[in-house]
From TrEMBL:
Catalytic activity reported: 3-dehydroquinate = 3-dehydroshikimate + H2O
Species for this entry: Anaerotignum lactatifermentans DSM 14214
NCBIfam families associated with the record: aroQ (TIGR01088), PRK05395.1-2 (NF003805), PRK05395.1-3 (NF003806), PRK05395.1-4 (NF003807)
UniProt EC number: 4.2.1.10
Active site per the UniProt annotation: Y22, H100
Gene Ontology molecular function: any one: 3-dehydroquinate dehydratase activity
Family to which the UniProt record says this protein belongs: Belongs to the type-II 3-dehydroquinase family.
Gene name of the encoded protein: aroQ
Keywords: Amino-acid biosynthesis, Aromatic amino acid biosynthesis, Lyase
Signal peptide: none
Summary of subunit composition and partner proteins: Homododecamer.
Binding site for substrate: N74, H80, D87, L101, S102, R111
Protein's pathway: Metabolic intermediate biosynthesis; chorismate biosynthesis; chorismate from D-erythrose 4-phosphate and phosphoenolpyruvate: step 3/7
Protein name (record): 3-dehydroquinate dehydratase
PROSITE patterns associated with the record: DEHYDROQUINASE_II
Length: 145
Protein backbone atom coordinates (compact mmCIF):
# COMPACT_ATOMS: atom_id res chain seq x y z
CA UNK A 1 0.00 0.00 0.00
CA UNK A 2 1.25 3.46 -0.92
CA UNK A 3 0.06 6.46 1.14
CA UNK A 4 0.73 10.17 0.80
CA UNK A 5 0.76 12.15 4.06
CA UNK A 6 0.29 15.86 3.38
CA UNK A 7 0.80 18.61 5.96
CA UNK A 8 -0.13 22.23 5.45
CA UNK A 9 1.17 25.55 6.68
CA UNK A 10 3.03 26.00 9.94
CA UNK A 11 3.22 22.31 10.77
CA UNK A 12 6.96 22.60 10.17
CA UNK A 13 6.92 24.80 13.28
CA UNK A 14 5.67 22.08 15.63
CA UNK A 15 7.50 22.19 18.95
CA UNK A 16 7.91 25.95 18.56
CA UNK A 17 4.42 27.32 17.97
CA UNK A 18 1.59 27.40 20.50
CA UNK A 19 2.95 24.61 22.67
CA UNK A 20 -0.18 24.75 24.83
CA UNK A 21 -2.18 23.58 21.78
CA UNK A 22 0.29 21.52 19.75
CA UNK A 23 2.74 20.27 22.36
CA UNK A 24 6.52 20.20 22.34
CA UNK A 25 7.18 17.43 19.84
CA UNK A 26 8.68 18.62 16.57
CA UNK A 27 7.78 18.05 12.94
CA UNK A 28 10.81 15.74 12.70
CA UNK A 29 9.33 13.72 15.59
CA UNK A 30 6.05 13.43 13.67
CA UNK A 31 7.80 12.29 10.50
CA UNK A 32 9.82 9.71 12.45
CA UNK A 33 6.68 8.36 14.11
CA UNK A 34 4.93 8.00 10.74
CA UNK A 35 7.97 6.42 9.05
CA UNK A 36 8.46 3.95 11.90
CA UNK A 37 4.80 2.92 11.89
CA UNK A 38 4.68 2.56 8.11
CA UNK A 39 7.87 0.51 8.02
CA UNK A 40 6.46 -1.83 10.68
CA UNK A 41 3.15 -2.14 8.80
CA UNK A 42 4.59 -2.49 5.30
CA UNK A 43 3.16 0.81 4.06
CA UNK A 44 5.08 2.80 1.46
CA UNK A 45 4.75 6.40 2.66
CA UNK A 46 5.59 9.79 1.19
CA UNK A 47 5.41 12.69 3.65
CA UNK A 48 5.12 16.22 2.30
CA UNK A 49 4.74 19.59 4.01
CA UNK A 50 4.35 23.01 2.51
CA UNK A 51 3.26 26.46 3.57
CA UNK A 52 2.03 27.10 0.01
CA UNK A 53 -1.45 26.15 -1.15
CA UNK A 54 -0.43 25.52 -4.76
CA UNK A 55 2.35 23.14 -3.72
CA UNK A 56 -0.16 21.13 -1.68
CA UNK A 57 -2.54 20.98 -4.66
CA UNK A 58 0.30 19.91 -6.95
CA UNK A 59 1.31 17.12 -4.57
CA UNK A 60 -2.28 15.86 -4.28
CA UNK A 61 -2.50 15.72 -8.07
CA UNK A 62 0.86 13.98 -8.35
CA UNK A 63 -0.43 11.27 -5.99
CA UNK A 64 -2.87 10.20 -8.69
CA UNK A 65 -0.16 9.77 -11.30
CA UNK A 66 2.20 8.04 -8.85
CA UNK A 67 -0.35 5.28 -8.23
CA UNK A 68 -0.84 6.29 -4.62
CA UNK A 69 -3.56 4.28 -2.89
CA UNK A 70 -4.69 6.80 -0.27
CA UNK A 71 -4.05 10.20 1.32
CA UNK A 72 -3.77 11.38 4.91
CA UNK A 73 -4.07 15.15 4.98
CA UNK A 74 -3.72 17.82 7.62
CA UNK A 75 -4.43 20.97 5.61
CA UNK A 76 -3.86 23.07 8.75
CA UNK A 77 -5.11 26.63 8.21
CA UNK A 78 -6.11 25.80 4.62
CA UNK A 79 -8.75 23.49 6.10
CA UNK A 80 -11.03 26.46 6.56
CA UNK A 81 -10.25 28.41 3.39
CA UNK A 82 -9.12 26.24 0.50
CA UNK A 83 -11.61 25.21 -2.12
CA UNK A 84 -8.55 24.47 -4.29
CA UNK A 85 -7.45 21.68 -1.94
CA UNK A 86 -11.03 20.36 -1.80
CA UNK A 87 -11.19 20.33 -5.60
CA UNK A 88 -7.80 18.58 -5.88
CA UNK A 89 -8.90 15.86 -3.47
CA UNK A 90 -12.13 15.42 -5.42
CA UNK A 91 -10.26 15.35 -8.73
CA UNK A 92 -7.90 12.52 -7.75
CA UNK A 93 -10.75 10.62 -6.04
CA UNK A 94 -8.43 8.68 -3.73
CA UNK A 95 -9.52 7.50 -0.28
CA UNK A 96 -8.56 10.28 2.12
CA UNK A 97 -8.56 10.86 5.86
CA UNK A 98 -8.32 14.35 7.34
CA UNK A 99 -6.26 14.72 10.53
CA UNK A 100 -5.97 17.62 12.97
CA UNK A 101 -3.67 17.59 15.97
CA UNK A 102 -5.98 19.74 18.08
CA UNK A 103 -9.70 19.40 18.67
CA UNK A 104 -10.76 21.98 16.10
CA UNK A 105 -14.40 21.48 17.10
CA UNK A 106 -13.74 23.19 20.43
CA UNK A 107 -11.75 26.07 18.98
CA UNK A 108 -12.68 29.33 17.21
CA UNK A 109 -15.87 29.58 15.16
CA UNK A 110 -14.00 29.95 11.88
CA UNK A 111 -12.39 26.54 12.44
CA UNK A 112 -15.77 24.77 12.29
CA UNK A 113 -15.79 24.56 8.49
CA UNK A 114 -13.53 22.07 6.75
CA UNK A 115 -13.45 22.29 2.99
CA UNK A 116 -10.91 19.48 2.67
CA UNK A 117 -13.00 17.32 4.97
CA UNK A 118 -15.81 17.41 2.43
CA UNK A 119 -13.68 15.14 0.22
CA UNK A 120 -12.48 12.87 3.03
CA UNK A 121 -14.23 9.78 4.25
CA UNK A 122 -13.09 10.25 7.85
CA UNK A 123 -11.81 13.07 10.06
CA UNK A 124 -9.69 12.54 13.16
CA UNK A 125 -9.22 15.48 15.53
CA UNK A 126 -7.70 16.15 18.90
CA UNK A 127 -5.51 13.06 19.13
CA UNK A 128 -2.17 14.72 18.48
CA UNK A 129 0.39 12.70 16.54
CA UNK A 130 -1.58 9.51 17.21
CA UNK A 131 -4.29 10.81 14.89
CA UNK A 132 -1.95 10.14 11.97
CA UNK A 133 -1.38 6.57 13.14
CA UNK A 134 -5.13 6.05 13.51
CA UNK A 135 -5.65 7.39 9.98
CA UNK A 136 -2.96 5.12 8.51
CA UNK A 137 -4.34 2.09 10.36
CA UNK A 138 -7.84 2.85 9.10
CA UNK A 139 -6.68 3.15 5.50
CA UNK A 140 -4.56 0.00 5.70
CA UNK A 141 -7.41 -2.03 7.15
CA UNK A 142 -9.94 -0.75 4.62
CA UNK A 143 -7.87 -0.56 1.44
CA UNK A 144 -4.77 -2.76 1.63
CA UNK A 145 -4.75 -4.98 -1.44
Amino acid sequence: MKVLVINGPNLNMLGIREKHIYGTETYADLKNLIHDYCQKEGIDVDIFQSNHEGALVDHIQTAYFNETDAIVINPAAYTHTSVAILDALKAVNLPAVEVHLSDVGSREDFRQISYAGMACEKTITGKGFQGYIEALAYLKEKYQK
